[in-house]
Amino acid sequence: MSAATGPVTDKIDPFSKKQSVKKPKQKRSQASSRYKAKGGTELVPLPQLKDAPPAEQHELFIKKLQQCSVVFDFMDSVSDLKGKEIKRASLNELVDYITAGRGVLTEQVYPEVVKMIASNIFRTLPPSENTEFDPEEDDPTLEASWPHLQIVYEFFLRFLESPDFQPSIAKKYIDQKFVLQLLELFDSEDPRERDFLKTVLHRIYGKFLGLRAFIRKQINHIFLKFIYETEHFNGVGELLEILGSIINGFALPLKAEHKQFLIKVLIPLHKAKSLSLYHAQSAFFTQLAYCVVQFLEKDATLTEPVVRGLLKFWPKTCSQKEVMFLGEIEEILDVIEPSQFVRIQEPLFKQISKCVSSPHFQVAERALYFWNNEYVMSLIEENSNVIMPIMFPNLYRISKEHWNQTIVALVYNVLKTFMEMNSKLFDELTANYKAERQKERKKEKEREELWKKLDGLEINATVNNKEVKSVPPTSTNTPVAGGSPAVGTRYAPYSPTAHRLMAK
Amino acid sequence: MAASDSDDSLYPIAVLIDELRNEDVQLRLNSIKKLSTIALALGVERTRSELIPFLTDTIYDEDEVLLALAEQLGNFTPLVGGQEHVHCLLPPLESLATVEETVVRDKAVESLRKIAADHSTADLEAHFVPLVKRLASGDWFTSRTSACGLFSVPYPRVSSQVKAELRTHFRNLCGDDTPMVRRAAAGKMGEFAKVLELEYLKSDLIPLWTNLASDEQDSVRLLAVEACVSIASILPREDLESLVMPTLKNAAEDKSWRVRYMVADKFTELQVAVGPEITKSDLAPAFQGLLKDCEAEVRAAAANKVKEFCENLPADVRETTIMTNILPCVKWSFFLQELVTDANQHVKSALASVIMGLSPILGKDNTVEHLLPLFLIMLKDECPEVRLNIISNLDCVNRVIGITQLSQSLLPAIVELAEDTKWRVRLAIIEYMPLLAGQLGQDFFDEKLNNLCMAWLVDHVYAIREAATNNLKKLVEKFGSEWATSKIVPKVVAMAQDPNYLHRMTTLFCVNVLAEVCGVEVTVSVFLPVVLKLASDAVPNVRFNVAKTLQKIGGLFDAETVNSQLKPCLDKLKTDQDFDVKYYASEAILVLTEAA
């Protein structure tokens, strides 16, 4: 028969075909979603700025800005090559002109500059081509119009950084609406663009005092949408990086608004699913931890809510993420005040005790490394009477059970430090270990018994319920709910059963 | 009541509450999930006076636990003493409706809506509505988003003064500073519109809706499109043109593709809501625009709706609208595919899955003239999904023009799909074989497709071989046992000699499904000897499948055949060296003996 179905005997292995199934990898680039972009404007080359007489330069500058507002289709790589080249050259010229020239930023120029920038960079981001984006496997989708966009961003930065730049004039054009659109661009998949945006936004935050609160609020909204609605936003890492330096500059005492941001936004950000996807964990998590630690260095009283927050969002299944959490906890412990440590030691070390006995050796190892940290050690020593009883049972157990020899060795070291710290307590704990376990087992049994009895109750209830099907379910579908005495007597056989069960 | 009083000493609340406080989250979660049991043990009075306050005070647990709690409380009305006491459930649910985690909040809102129905009108005004107002003016956005979902349930049952207050609160939420709240309001606007009096719908809600539909955030605007479906279906037709259409038209041309996508996705619902007149004048051109959209996502969503849109068109304008507005687009958006990329595969396959449905609407002549060329091109598409979608909908066309016009193009398409490298594609086409066989007729089938069906029997993927055997059964059902004996059976039997044991097993699998449809005669004279011979196969897997086959087809034979032929064979297999062979042999003997 045909090739595919013929010599089947040598094709039993279904995996031989896999190569042909998987699509060849290709560098993707994507155009922005520009709806009904105006086409057909043909660019006419203008004379070079440097060749124009000084009197005409200003007018030519504005003309060039207007020319550069025309947007080209870069998905069609062959269309209008001449126009694209003219624009590219003009943009480069504009960059040089505002970098080198003095006094070129007159008041009339501002609206033209902002218009040019806006018409180039503001666009609806296209649908993401790979919804399951994995930074380790996939290349990011790159912006097709980058050859122009890059120079526009370059120009934007030079404009903001120019010694002639006057925020008091620019604020008429770089307003809330402008910033809002700028922030939306942080979702761009192209890391080059996000990098430029980061610097641009940072400059705007620095120069426009009137926009600061607005920018912070909008970043809040982006984060909250990311945490609670979409779980997808490409620029979270970049925004956190900017925030890191913003937090650094907060005046003391911290405003309530800033504290709320920490507790209600930054801490919940830890639970984002994609947190673990951001590989190298650098882009996102390091920034996040940095922001949190910044806050704690400013105001130590925030330690307790922060640590409790982290414990609340502690990863349940993702070991990789758990390692990152432990890293952040150690950073916090590095700056913690002893008075604050006392307040959180109990819940914190209960969690650490769980991590230490994690079957995932990286998690266990990361937690055990805390004992190499001198400051942390000193804190543990000061509070050994609280921490040792929490840590001991798990340490003792895994010193015998853990599959990984490195972990066992580390655990022995920790037990040894405990012994040296407080040998009396250590001996007591060792002696009581068995008795404690038995107590736990007994408690466990008691709970089982209790629930068995309660379940019996429920089964009885349902059985009784079935017997009185005629009663409308809305009013009395549960036996004890009976409001009327008539219903109460109907369920009478129900309490003796309970008695009998309890008597046993 | 007596029951619950006497239980006091037996179920000390402390013990139960201890369970709800257990250090282990999993145990806490288990306890919460059995909260109704605990309440049952406590009785209605103590549930009200002790358990509910405890729950209200201690809401700062893991989200997982809170979610379970929110769900439980929705079913708690009987456990607290029914309608007159149900309002005691409001405080814990109110707290739950303000937590950070969305799923918990949503569940709390769901439960609140549920128990709102259990409230008397007086309680609704005294307890429920104040809760809605508190939430709606909460500090943090979470309580305000939750509030949005709580307007439509109490609204119809309260006094006009309270209604006015509720409307004011809803208006504030629509203009909230936080986009999350505006999204929630836009999302719930549709259901609120349904319970609102017409005059207020026009005077209050429509302006709010228009605002949300032009919100600065596209995520808000697209939710307004959803609300549009409900709003348009409630408004009298004469108001639609002025109140709804301008906004809807803007949405269809929104600069964000997400909003346009939403319009495309809801298009047929919108079409039904606005009625035939506006469809003719406004929606048809808008639909054309969406089919030509610059984003593939939008085109695919629109393409998916082509058939339904056309079906919904009023009969008098249907044909002209399709011919002038739709078909040119379909062609356009389709020819574009030939040029370009990956993403557009979705557009093509969306179109392919519905385009055949147009032919019954357009009738024979138009189908032949306009649709047929499109089908033919799509049948040659590089993307298997497109071809498959066309083939899977052949019956629509067959009813209108018969399949002969297509058969010449069908064949290569089928053959290619039959040999596709992806087994899922092969599987899909196999599943259409019985249908195709019926449409194309026996002669065509014998000539062109029979060989394909046989080839699948020796595919290297088990799922395909399995599907191929089942396919044979359906074919025999269609063409009869005489056809089977001449065209199928010889080939199946021949495979029993194949050097590859998998193929020999396939013979057995075929016998399993064919025995019944081919009838006893063929089975006894042709299949049985082959099966019995395979009992001495060198490969144990073949041998124990013989046992399984004999067990399966044993019921067809009379006692004599069973005793003289099946039993001896199975007895021999029962003494096989291989453990599995022995097992299946004794199993088969057992079944056959029982049957006898």
Short description:
The complex is a heterodimer of chains A (504) and B (596). Chain A is mainly α and 504 residues long.
Can you walk through the features of this model?
- The complex is a heterodimer of chains A (504) and B (596).
- With 504 residues, chain A is mostly helical.
- Among the domains of chain A are: 118 residues, no CATH class; 124 residues.
- Helices cover 63% and strands 1% of the residues of chain A.
- Chain A has 23 helices and two strands.
- Chain A has a two-stranded parallel sheet with strand order 1-2.
- The N terminus and C terminus of chain A are likely disordered.
- Chain B has 596 residues and is mainly α.
- Chain B has a domain of 115 residues: Leucine-rich Repeat Variant, CATH 1.25.10.
- Chain B is 78% helix and 0% strand.
- In chain B, helix 16 packs across helix 17, helix 28 packs antiparallel against helix 29 and helix 30 runs parallel beside helix 32.
- Chain B is flat and about 90 Å long.
- At the A-B interface, helix 9, helix 20 and helix 23 of A face helix 1, helix 4, helix 11, helix 16 and helix 27 of B.
